[in-house]
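quick q for whoever's on today - can somebody do inverse folding on this one?? i tried earlier but teh output was garbage lol. C-alpha cells:
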C-alpha cells in the first residue's frame, strides 16, 4: 500500500465509511476503489480532486504524506531528546565548575 492509499484508507476509517460507501460516492466500483487504496491503480488528477472534496480536504492536504500521528511521535521524540540534552548540558556545567574549583585548590597550595 502506498502513502496516498494509506491516507485515503485512514480518512475513510475516520468517517466510518466502508469501501462500498466511498465507491458509491465516487461513482466507481468497489474493486476500483480498493485498487486506489492499495496503490494498485494510479489515480488521475480528476479522481484525486473528487476524493479530496469527498473528505473535505484541499488537494495539497490529500497529497501531503505526513501522518499527523507520525508527526506527534516525532515531536514527542524531539521533546524527549531536548530534555536529555538540557540534562546533559547541566551536568557539563556542574563538571566544569568542579574542574575550576579543583584547579583553584591546586594553585592555592602551590
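ok took a stab at it. sequence:
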Amino acid at each position: 500500500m502506498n502513502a496516498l492509499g494509506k491516507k485515503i484508507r485512514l480518512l475513510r476509517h475516520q468517517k466510518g465509511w466502508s469501501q462500498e460507501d466511498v465507491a458509491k460516492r465516487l461513482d466507481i466500483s468497489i474493486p476500483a476503489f480498493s485498487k486506489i487504496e492499495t496503490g494498485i491503480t494510479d489515480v488521475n488528477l480528476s479522481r484525486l480532486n473528487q476524493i479530496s472534496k469527498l473528505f473535505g480536504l484541499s488537494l495539497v492536504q490529500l497529497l501531503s504524506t505526513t501522518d499527523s500521528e507520525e508527526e506527534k511521535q516525532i515531536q514527542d521524540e524531539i521533546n524527549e531528546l531536548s530534555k536529555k540534552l538540557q540534562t546533559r548540558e547541566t551536568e557539563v556545567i556542574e563538571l566544569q565548575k568542579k574542574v575550576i574549583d579543583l584547579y583553584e585548590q591546586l594553585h592555592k597550595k602551590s
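fwiw The chain has six helices and no strands. also The chain has a mean pLDDT of 90. so keep that in mind when u check it
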